[in-house]
Each structure stands twice: as C-alpha cells, then as structure tokens.
Amino acid sequence: MKKVAYTLFTVLLIGLAIYSFSRYDEKTSQAMNLENDIINDYEDIIIKRGNEDEKIVALTFDDGPDKDYTPQVLDILKKHDVKATFFVVGENVTWNPELIKREYEEGHEIGNHTFTHINVAKKAYGEIDKEISQTQEEVKKVIGQEPKLFRPPYRAISKNMCDIIKSKNMNIILWSNLDPRDWSNPGVGYIINTINNKVENGNIILLHDYNRVRVKRSQTIQALEVIIPALKEKGYEFVTVSELINRLENKNSDEKPTQK
C-alpha cells in the first residue's frame, strides 16, 4: 500500500513540475513577444547595432561612475586612444561628479542609465520619468548638457519608457550579440574570448565600470587591456555610440533611391 501511495505521489509531483514548467515557458514566451512588439513599434528610436558594412565597434560601460574602477577604465582608454560611451547611474553621478567631468573632457560620451538602476518594466510612468529626468539633471550640472542616449537596466523594455524617451528626443541603446556578462565575474578569459569570438561589424559591446566584487583590478579592467589591442589588430575602429548612429544614418541616407 505504501509503495502504491509513494508511486502516486511521485507521479503527481512530476505532473505538477511539467505543468509549472509549461506555464513558465508560456509566460516567458508571452513576455518576449510583448517586448518584441514594443521594439518593433519604437524601432525609430531603438538602436542595437551600427553599420554592418563598416569595421567599427562601440565600447559601452554601464553602472558607473565608480570611484575605484572608472579611473582605471579611463586610463586604459586614454592609453590606447579609444573613445567609449558611459551609461551612468544618476545616484553615482552625485557621488563622483569629477569622474563624469573627466569622461566628458577626455572625449567620451555620457548616456543615462536611470537614477537608481530600476527595472522599467516593473515601474509606473511617473517613477520612470522621475528616474530618467533626475539623471539628466545631475549630468547637466556637471558637463552642461543632458545625455541624448538612454540604456535601460536589465535590458528591460516598456511602452511607458519608450514614450518618455521619445518625448525627450533621445535614443534607446541596447547592445548587439555581445554580452560577456562581465558583471557576474565569469573569468577574464571568458570575457576576452566572448568578445574576440563574437565580434562583428557595427557591434555595440556591453561592459561595466562598476562591480560589486571589490578587488584591486576588476575582471573587466584586466580583459580590457587585451580586448582593445586584439580588436585593433583585427582592423576595428572604436567609436562612440552617437558616432555609430551617425554613420548608420549616413549609410541609410546614401542607400535611399534618388527621386527623378
């Protein structure tokens, strides 16, 4: 009797697990479909890559400025004469304004990454607007102008966010096929190999100048010392995201048929 009861209980558990997985899979699929629909509706302001016919890439760094890691990133970029784009968290800007000033003065681009790194897909219109606007204001206090680029934390997408960004005449910047997940500390070799093996023309490369693991040199910084010379050797040119967009727009403009 106990054996029969145990068998029935096991079958029930397996059935429940299969049902739960199928429901999760269905919800995930629905969420992805909704995100794709939003991206399609706002494709005029969402950028995921640049000109695929040109050997250019854009290095981007999220979550800073960080008092320890950002200066090291800037030193490496300066050493190799590379310009990048920093998507900053507004709260961090208030703590490290001198680093934003240095980024700007050394020719890098500043983008908005919300004020406290929120998930915009889980927030109401008012809170999203406040987070974006606060960051715009903090950056402007330091460099005298507001960012024109926005990257949503977690790559989260919502219609409210898109409407707010469009109203501010900004672009939403995602990334291409290159996410080495450096924030998770997967290993210096993994970060290097992911970028080296997957890099393509027009890529927007996602990296971070902040890390919760506090060491002398983050894995990102160690990898960056190798990545930049390696990509240059392959013939890639490093540009800011706005330069990437400009070149893409110029290409699209050249390809438009002339009216007779």
TrEMBL record:
GO terms for molecular function: hydrolase activity, acting on carbon-nitrogen (but not peptide) bonds. It comes from the Bacteria. PROSITE patterns: NODB. Residues 55-239 form the NodB homology domain. GO terms for biological process: carbohydrate metabolic process. CDD domains: CE4_CtAXE_like. It holds the Pfam family Polysacc_deac_1. This is Oligosaccharide deacetylase.
